[in-house]
Amino acid sequence: MNAPLLLRRAVAELVGTAFLVAAVVGSGIAAQRLSPDDVGLQLLENSLATGAVLVALILALQPVSASFNPVVTLVERVLGRVDTTTAAALVGAQLVGGLVGVVVANLMFDLDAVSVSTHDRGGSGQLLGEVVATLGLVLVVFGALRSPRIETVAFAVGGYIAAAYWFTSSTSFANPAVTVARMLSDTFAGIAPASVPPFLVMQVVGAALGAGLVLLLHASPAPVPVEESR
Question: What InterPro entries does the entry give (predicted)?
Answer without folding.
Answer: Aquaporin-like (IPR023271), Aquaporin_transptr (IPR034294), MIP (IPR000425)
